Structures are given as C-alpha cells and as structure tokens.
Inverse folding.
C-alpha cells in the first residue's frame, strides 16, 4: 500500500471513531464537539469571510516577520561564523535567546510597541531569527575546506570567495535554517495572536473560546495544523531534499 | 629551470608544542614540459610539498620559484587537481569549468574555451549536467578540464586517481598522457602507486619519510606508450620497491611501537 493511501485511511478511521464516539454520547458535545460540528463551524467561518480575513491578516504578519527574521538571522550568522570575538560574546547570547520561547517577550513588546501589529511581528521575528542565525553559522563553518582550497588555486579570494563559494556551499544549512525559522515563527505568531487583538487565526481561536464555541476552536486548530504541515512538507522538505541531493550530501 | 625548489623546509608544532619536520632540505629543479611524479609512502610530506608549490601552504624556510616568480600565494599560473574532485555541486559542468575564467574574459570567449577543454576530457555532451549526476571518474575529468582551462604553466595533481576504481583509473591514465602530449604542460603528479608513476612520468622523485626527504631522482626512459614495455616497467618497479621498502618498514615499526605503547 502506498504511504499516501495508508495516511488517508488512517485519518478516515480516526475521524470516523471520533464521530461515532460523539454520536454515542461518550463525551459531552461541549467538551469535544463532533467532526461534523467542526466542519460546519469551518464552513460558516469561510462563508461569512471571518476565517478568510483571519488567514490574510495572519499571513501578512508571518511574511513580514519571517522575512525580517531571515535577513537578521543570516547576517548575524555570517558575523558569528566569521568573527571569533563575536562568536564568543554575541554567540552565547544568541544561544540563550534561542532557549527562551519568543512569546515570553510579548509583555515587553506590548510596553514598547503597544498592543497591536508591531508587538506580534516583534515576537514572530524573535521566534525565527535565532534558529536561522545558528544554522547559518554552522553552515558557513562547515563548508568543505577542499572547496575553499580549490577556489583559491583558481584565483578567488576575499569577498569573491565568500559570495561565489562559501555562501552557495552552505545553502543546505540556509534551507534547513529557513524551514526551522518558519516553524518557530508560525508557533510564535499563533501564541502572539492568542494574546492580542484581531483579526487573525489565533485571535479568532480565543474569541471562539470566550463564547464557548468549541467547534470553531477545534476548526481553527485544524487550520493551523494543516497549514503548518502543508508548508513544511510540500515546500520546505521538498526544497531540502533536492538541495541535499544536488549538494551530494545524501550518500 | 621552470620550477626551482630551494632548501625547502616545513615544520609544524605537535601537541606538546615541539617542532616536527615534515619536509627537510628539499632541492628540486623541474624543466618546462616535464611530467614528474612525486612518489612516497603516506606521511612523507609529498602532498604538503605540492600544496606549497600551489601556494596553499607556507614554507618554514626556503623558497619555491615557478617561471621566475617566487611563490607566495595561490595563483592561476598553477592549476591544481585534488584527490576528491572539488568541483562545485551547485554549478553545472559548464559553469564549473568557467569558474576560473569568469573575470578575465568575455562570457562568449570563456564558453568557447570551456567547450574546447570539455572536448579534451571527452565530456562535451555533459556541459549542462550537475556533479551529482556524474560518476567519480567523470567528476575528476571535469576538475582536470577546469584546471587546464586557466592555461596554467604547471598542473599540480594530488593523487588525482586515488579514489577511483582500477578500470576507471587505467582509462584516465591514458587520457592524461594524451592530454600531456597535446598540451605540453609541466605536470607535478603526487602518488603512492609505483606503477602509476612509472606508467606516466618522465621522472620519479622518490621520497622517504619522517622527515620527508628526496631519496632518489629517477629518469624513466621507457618509450611511450609504456603498456608495451612491461618488462622494463617491472624492473624499474622492483628497483623503486627496494628503495621504499626501508621507508615503509620504518612507518610500520613506528605504528607498531605506537600501538604497543598505548
């Protein structure tokens, strides 16, 4: 059996059991609504466009935040890889920051930027930056010395060597860094929106919860999960796979 | 002389911060167009010597002069081929061979030169292939084409066929010999294979180990192609084997002593 078919079958069974359990009254509809109610809540949300607006608003923040995170992360990673002093000082700070979930910055961010767009984007940026930094740093440090030696015998040095050889040679790490940065940023965004004002998927989730609309809560959770999985598997893992193959890292 | 190596010494510091001689008092003169093999057991510093000619490693004392210029850093006048192909995986074959040319000539000119060199290594049909789509032998031919495309005065080869299977290696020996005859390049070829050095070179520099020194400088005057002169090759092989036996024993004894002391 193909993995795809196995997967579909698995989800059909899980949702089927869930529906059966709800029907049989094994648990209260308020605690865990049935799949059908969740589906209905999603359809209503899409029809009255709230979920559409939420998606657009969330993605806007994500794209802005992630773009800034990748830019800062890459620059900082290059700095750490190239300067021992920076690595010894800023490097340890980056490691410390990376182990702090970015959402804990929200209270400070709200003080600095007010309860709005900027505070959430700030948390998203912090979510994605450091994991990118660490990957870029390792990527540049791990460039095969052979490539550098070969390039030098061909008259390449300095900035030319860096741009034409070292940076492209570390692309596999840049891709992995971006994938992880996306994952961290996506989680940070949801947490930020949950504690902030709308529109946005996280905001709608909390709003639905405040009004006891558990079907919509689960519906939004499904959307968040599906988007996370789809972006990771359909976009990043594919790029990662082809890069690893081309860069000859799979053997 | 085209390449002069004078009183060359190389030391490095070991873990206890004591200097260890890698190469000691190397003196060599190599004429233009010569195919010279540097042969020796592992650890004799032959690759270090080649890297120093390339300008990748600095000498502790002494100097290397190539075409009347003192070697201080790497340059396009000395092309190098490594044991691993070292071609860039993110570029296709054409872009790889164009890499050293991109700054000194127009794209059109560079492309023409690349095509010519790909033909020389019989890879004309693979210009748009990426390295991961090529076999090890093909990758190494791309690396040779890339080094030759810069039109260097000397081609430095560091065990270029060491990682290939026997059949591929034999084929590449013939191709390299052909290329050498056509281009008349000076070639410095590092190897630990006696038969490889006899098959290919005009001269064999036999090196001893710890510290690396020149044991013998042997002129090979067997006519080419050498495959037809098996007897002469065998005789020479025995002679070099005799020279190297002591060196190899020395290495083995040291390794045994090291093992028993641990």
């Amino acid at each position: 059996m193909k993995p795809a078919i196995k997967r579909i079958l698995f989800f059909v069974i899980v949702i089927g059991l869930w529906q059966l359990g709800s029907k049989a009254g094994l648990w209260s509809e308020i605690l865990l609504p049935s799949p059908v109610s969740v589906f209905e809540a999603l359809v209503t949300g899409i029809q009255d466009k709230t979920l559409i607006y939420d998606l657009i608003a969330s993605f806007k923040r994500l794209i802005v935040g992630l773009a800034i995170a990748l830019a800062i992360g890459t620059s900082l990673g290059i700095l750490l890889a190239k300067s021992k002093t920076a690595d010894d000082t800023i490097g340890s700070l980056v490691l410390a920051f990376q182990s702090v979930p970015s959402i804990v910055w929200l209270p400070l961010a709200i003080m600095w930027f007010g309860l709005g767009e900027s505070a959430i984007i700030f948390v998203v940026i912090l979510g994605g930056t450091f994991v990118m930094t660490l990957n870029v740093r390792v990527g540049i440090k791990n460039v095969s010395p052979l490539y550098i030696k070969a390039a030098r015998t061909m008259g390449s040095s300095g900035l030319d060597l860096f741009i034409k050889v070292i940076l492209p040679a570390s692309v596999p790490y840049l891709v992995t860094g971006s994938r992880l940065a996306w994952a961290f940023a996506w989680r940070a965004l949801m947490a930020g929106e949950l504690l902030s004002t709308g529109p946005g998927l996280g905001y709608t989730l909390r709003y639905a919860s405040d009004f006891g609309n558990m079907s919509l809560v689960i519906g939004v959770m499904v959307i968040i999960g599906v988007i996370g999985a789809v972006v990771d598997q359909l976009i990043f893992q594919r790029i990662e796979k082809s890069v690893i193959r081309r860069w000859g890292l799979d053997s | 002389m085209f390449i002069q190596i004078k009183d060359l010494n190389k030391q490095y510091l070991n873990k206890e911060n004591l200097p260890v001689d890698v190469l000691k008092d190397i003196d060599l003169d190599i004429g233009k167009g010569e195919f010279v093999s540097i042969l020796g057991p592992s650890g004799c510093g032959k690759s270090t010597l080649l890297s120093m000619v390339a300008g990748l490693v600095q000498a502790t004392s002494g100097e290397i002069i190539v075409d009347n210029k003192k070697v201080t850093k790497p340059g396009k006048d000395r092309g190098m081929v490594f044991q691993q192909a070292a071609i860039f995986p993110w570029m296709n074959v054409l872009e790889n061979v164009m890499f050293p040319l991109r700054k000194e000539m127009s794209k059109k000119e560079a492309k023409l030169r690349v095509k010519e060199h790909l033909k020389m290594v019989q890879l004309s049909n693979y210009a748009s292939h990426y390295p991961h789509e090529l076999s090890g032998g093909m990758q190494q031919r791309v690396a040779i084409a890339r080094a030759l495309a810069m039109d260097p005065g000397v081609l430095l080869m560091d065990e270029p066929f060491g990682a290939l299977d026997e059949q591929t290696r034999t084929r590449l020996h013939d191709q390299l010999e052909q290329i050498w005859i056509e281009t008349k390049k000076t070639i410095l070829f590092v190897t630990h294979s006696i038969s490889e050095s006899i098959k290919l070179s005009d001269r064999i520099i036999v090196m001893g180990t710890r510290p690396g020194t020149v044991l013998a400088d042997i002129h090979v005057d067997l006519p080419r192609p050498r495959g037809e002169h098996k007897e002469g090759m065998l005789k020479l092989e025995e002679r070099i084997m005799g020279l190297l036996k002591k060196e190899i024993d020395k290495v083995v004894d040291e390794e045994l002593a090291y093992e028993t002391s641990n």
